[in-house]
């Protein structure tokens, strides 16, 4: 009798449990898919643009979306991932804060069944993210390096202002630049310092570098925000006419500065392409696709005085 009662209770629990799971599955299938857009920082117009384009494309494809600002803080980024997992987001479009420190967040999301599509920045782990859509920073800075050599006539002293040391883009850009410039013994790098991709910090770094090296001829900056900060410092010191500044990104103020003959060149990235591709990949994932490129490079174009009229902020003119 007791055994029979036990089996009845057990059977009831199994049936009830299966029914509950079935209801949850139907509820999940019936609601609109949600996409989290986790961005390293919204304190930079370039990343604001990236986030906006990702959000626009997600909504255009019919999905709910929300942008999360990690404020260049991996702990804040972890909170966003935990929130996305707990809140039932179905995909994450991701711009990492740190190539190594962000790996665990991607792993946690994927383990929870949430695909992660990296935009612009990557994580240092093969096969962790569902796909990584990245600017070809190395090749873009090879082109900048060649133009740098040409403008400085193969000789002179220069400084390099790096971005965030934990971001692979920082080193890909630096390596691309040096793969050209280091072959010219007449060009001497007298200082290399990080300014974390930040305009105000770059201005302070440039002010300090000018005190130590007042006779430099050029500055290579790992992004346009830092290029503008460096240029401000050069203007304040009265050296803007002599020292040549080179950036990377394709930001609106630098495009205008090139038109005005102030900053010499930048590498034009295409954040809209990266954002739209990531959102499209998420859409394809929802529809059953699983075969995505682990890394998808997006070409970078050299923008300088003689072709700047073909470009606007973050891309070509329409």
Write the layout of secondary structure elements.
Elements: H1 2-30, E1 34-39, H2 45-60, E2 64-69, H3 74-86, E3 91-94, H4 103-111, E4 116-119, E5 131-135, H5 137-151, E6 156-162, H6 168-181, E7 187-194, H7 199-212, E8 218-221, H8 224-237, E9 244-246, H9 252-259, E10 265-268, H10 271-286, E11 295-298, E12 301-304, E13 311-312, E14 315-316
Parallel strand pairs: 1-2, 1-3, 3-4, 4-5, 5-11, 6-7, 6-8, 8-9
Antiparallel strand pairs: 10-12, 13-14
Helix pairs in contact: 2-10, 3-4, 5-6, 7-8
Question: Explain this structure to me?
Answer:
- The protein has 318 residues and is α/β, with parallel strands linked by helices.
- 47% of the residues lie in helices and 20% in strands.
- It has helices at 2-30, 45-60, 74-86, 103-111, 137-151, 168-181, 199-212, 224-237, 252-259, 271-286; strands spanning 34-39, 64-69, 91-94, 116-119, 131-135, 156-162, 187-194, 218-221, 244-246, 265-268, 295-298, 301-304, 311-312, 315-316.
- It has a 6-stranded parallel sheet, with helices on both faces. A 4-stranded parallel sheet has the order 7-6-8-9, with helices on both faces.
- α4 links the parallel β3 (91-94) and β4 (116-119).
- The protein starts with a helix and ends with a strand.
- Its main location: other.
- Keywords: Membrane, Signal, Transmembrane, Transmembrane helix.
- Belongs to the bacterial solute-binding protein 2 family.
- It is found in: Cell envelope.
